[in-house]
Task: inverse folding
């Protein structure tokens, strides 16, 4: 997300490099480039005009710090304005006591509404809440069955002590179109079921359309009037730009939306919706969907997103992800093993799996300040890590404990067992031994210390760069490793 916008925006601001001071002429010149970049990112034209004017006013009225260059000063100003456009932070869900809290989800068809209901349920389950999902989308084929599968999957596999169940009336689907109140009745009975089962939260998965029409709005208003939801959340597809903003404005006019959830935030899209929807609707962005899995769901923090747009990374989110997946005790134990040269392949794989659970590797690396821009033209293939895991799984326990046992015959057997070739196995062995040796010399450096450092809010990008290149060894990867190390020394 924002990859193209980030590149163009930072380049526009860096054009001020070499200027002795901020002046109206060079600021307006830079802002013309910024304006084009925002419009190309499909940001609403009114938002672009207002944003650029505010930045110019802030820049001309700013006291230029003597230690900062004009480009650095401008990055600070643009960063603050981006935060203002998308903010404030408001991921709070108003929960009532006694329950259940009723949350109504609405949005266009294809926005990812049903999946988002599951993600929100997983988010609440993790916080100890019992959730009922109500299948009230009776128009889209198999929508009811999809929500039933989603609810079962979240209840079975998502973290947390809460329970997630689905209330559905599949037999009512055939009645849709002949009785417009059918979905309203399903929601009413779903809320009654949630109260009877003493659920903390009930989430209504309502119908969508390919475009907004009177029939849809009549049904949604009926659901709202009958169930009196405590929160109405609008699900918006971040990939459709200004169309999403227009839809958001219409939904808000009809239903008085309380918050927006942006989906598909991990896609290679322009990002205009994220920068426009708050300004157009006046309601906060609550959450963002960052992937297909149910845990790929984050509270929306404008300051962190602004940092990502300007290539400054997002260390806070990275730390939070690490704390969820990696035990501080485990990280410190492995750091001790690495410092003494006793790390095994099993230790390495345990940490690798923990890191992979944090999300796609390129996304994780992009949260490290200065690394995202370096990776923009590099494809980090997560399937390569599957091959590494296959190689490790094809080793015996003795081999994983002592990788020096691997001779030609064993390497050949591992290659056949893992579906790889002998060169790949040799490469993994060589790089693992090199990492083991380097970590001992650094007295606990490398991946484990990075994980321990993440627990305390800091990390060294070079080790994560090494991990991203594990198993590939391409010239491009090696050159980027050198850049990471040079940054570290500087």
Result:
């Amino acid at each position: 997300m924002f990859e193209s916008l980030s590149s163009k925006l930072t380049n526009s601001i860096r054009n001020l490099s070499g200027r002795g001071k901020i002046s109206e002429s060079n600021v307006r010149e830079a802002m013309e480039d910024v304006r084009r970049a925002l419009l190309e990112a499909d940001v609403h034209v009114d938002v672009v005009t207002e944003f650029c004017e505010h930045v110019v006013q802030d820049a001309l009225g700013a006291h230029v710090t003597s230690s900062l260059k004009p480009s650095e000063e401008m990055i600070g100003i643009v960063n603050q304005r981006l935060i203002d456009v998308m903010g404030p932070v408001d991921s709070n869900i108003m929960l009532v006591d006694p329950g259940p809290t009723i949350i109504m989800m609405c949005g266009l068809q294809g926005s990812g509404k049903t999946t988002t209901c599951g993600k929100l349920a997983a988010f609440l389950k993790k916080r100890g809440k019992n959730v009922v999902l109500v299948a009230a989308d009776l128009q889209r084929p198999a929508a009811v069955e999809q929500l039933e599968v989603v609810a079962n999957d979240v209840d079975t596999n998502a973290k947390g002590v809460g329970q997630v169940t689905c209330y559905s009336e599949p037999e009512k689907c055939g009645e849709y179109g002949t009785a417009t109140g059918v979905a309203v009745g399903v929601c009413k009975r779903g809320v009654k079921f949630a109260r009877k089962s003493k659920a903390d939260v009930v989430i209504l998965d309502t119908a969508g359309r390919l475009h907004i029409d009177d029939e849809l709005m009549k049904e949604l208003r009926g659901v709202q009037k009958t169930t009196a939801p405590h929160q109405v959340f609008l699900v918006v597809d971040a990939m459709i730009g200004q169309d999403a903003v227009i839809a958001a404005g219409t939904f808000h006019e009809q239903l008085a939306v309380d918050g927006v959830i942006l989906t598909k935030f991990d896609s290679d899209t322009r990002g205009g919706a994220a920068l426009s929807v708050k300004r157009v609707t006046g309601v906060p962005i609550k959450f963002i969907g960052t992937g297909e899995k149910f845990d790929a769901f984050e509270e929306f923090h404008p300051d962190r997103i602004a940092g990502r747009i300007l290539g400054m990374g997002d260390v806070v989110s990275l730390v939070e992800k690490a704390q969820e997946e990696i035990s501080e005790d485990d990280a410190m134990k492995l750091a001790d093993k690495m410092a003494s040269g006793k790390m095994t392949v099993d230790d390495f794989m345990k940490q690798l799996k923990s890191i992979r659970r944090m999300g796609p590797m390129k996304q994780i690396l992009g949260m490290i300040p200065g690394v995202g821009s370096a990776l923009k033209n590099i494809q980090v293939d997560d399937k390569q890590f599957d091959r590494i895991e296959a190689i490790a799984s094809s080793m015996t326990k003795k081999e994983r404990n002592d990788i020096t046992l691997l001779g030609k015959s064993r390497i050949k057997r591992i290659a056949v067992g893992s579906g790889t070739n002998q060169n790949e196995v040799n490469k993994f062995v060589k790089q693992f031994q090199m990492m083991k040796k380097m970590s001992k010399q650094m007295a606990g450096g490398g991946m484990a210390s990075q994980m321990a450092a993440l627990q305390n809010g800091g990390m060294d990008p070079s080790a994560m760069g090494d991990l991203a290149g594990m198993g590939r060894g391409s010239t491009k990867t090696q050159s980027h490793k050198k850049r990471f190390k040079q940054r570290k020394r500087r």
Summary: Strands lie at 101-106, 131-136, 164-167, 201-206, 231-237, 259-263, 285-289, 297-299. The chain has three domains: 3-86, 101-309, 315-489. Confidence is low (pLDDT under 50) at residues 443-448, 454-485.
